[in-house]
Design a protein that fits this description.
Elements lengths: L10 E2 L2 H9 L7 E5 L7 H4 L5 E6 L2 H10 L7 E3 L7 H4 L6 E5 L5 H10 L6 E7 H8 L9 H7 L2 E9 L4 E2 L6 E8 L9 H13 L5 H4 L6 H6 L12 H12 L2
Parallel strand pairs: 2-3, 2-5, 3-4, 5-6
Antiparallel strand pairs: 1-8, 6-9, 7-9
Helix pairs in contact: 8-11
Amino acid sequence: MKAKKSYGQHFLTNEHLARSIADATDPSCKRLLEVGPGRGMLTKYLLEKPAQLVTVEADRDMVAYLEKFYPQLKGQIVEADFLKVNLEKIFDNQEFTIIGNFPYNISSQIVFKMIDARQLVPELVGMFQKEMAARIIAPPGDKTYGVISVLTQAYYEGTYLFTVGSGNFAPPPKVQSAVIRLRRRANLMLDCNEAIFRQVVKQAFGQRRKMLRNSLRGFFSDEAVLQDAFFQQRPEQLSVQDYVHLAQKAENQ
């Protein structure tokens, strides 16, 4: 697989932080998939682990660098756009942890790809722009709570591990970064029609300043939204289970 596309990345230069990220993974993990290894700052510590390691790198120059300085990765580098990789084929349909210093401009898409492949991904440990990291694990009621918060937390439990200042990268980004860990919940499937669940969540937050009685009229009758006090709330006030309830209600309309 060849890839010409390269996502602008800021390379981690702090050895201590690199080891801390590597050590944040579940020690019982048997397979690791590193996204965007770049020059291998994190890779070197992942190679020390007993888990099988595969890296996905879109930049050909970085692939050549890894092949030169980390010959033990021979046969374990996939030169490709991660967003186009078939995750079922990487480890022959076996479970694996996703880890990496993620390119900021595709970090949310990496999370959504993980959600779609959740039967294979029990854990993700990743470096994000700090605001994105906070948004992913934000609780209901938080001003950053949104679509990615609900869809991620429906299947994963998030933990904020630590903040990383811009001085730990080359070139230094203009924003702070943060490392979070997502561990899959027991429920691979929700107790509702999941397509409707996603539609309801996206519709609600598409008009997040409006009460649900206005933003969700397309899913429910006027009578339902006007009579039920539940619809007088705004989208950020609802828990994941509340959205499951709404999806059930919408399906039965």
